Amino acid sequence: VQLQASGGGSVQAGGSLRLSCLASGCTFSTYGEGWFRQAPGKEREFVAAIISWSGGSTHYADSVKGRFTISRDNAKNTVYLQMDNLKPEDTAVYYCARARAYTEVPVTQPRAYDYWGQGTLVTVSS
Fold this sequence. Notes:
Layout lengths: L1 E5 L2 E4 L4 E8 L7 E7 L6 E7 L5 E4 L7 E6 L4 E6 L8 E8 L13 E4 L3 E6 L1
Parallel strand pairs: 2-11
Antiparallel strand pairs: 1-3, 3-8, 4-5, 4-9, 5-6, 7-8, 9-10, 9-11
């Protein structure tokens, strides 16, 4: 299984970016997928998740609710993270990950995930 994240870049505050995570070696639609981020000097934190075994339910960190949207294109085996109204505090390396099927670990926890992409850098300037 390989996950390839892309779409990062540099934007000004208030701008938008869309991250993509392409999966190979597995069928995304049967798992859950999540996005995490890690800013310099900080721990990796949960951003959003979409869970197939709960009817495609979505989950968001409070800090991104109303600004970020996670979605999935099963035909392309790709998960997206649409990020709008970006803020400087959103600056981080963003990672996509595949959740273990039917995991009982909360999807907000990194240990709920078994495969991770390489990360893509998002920089938001004020």
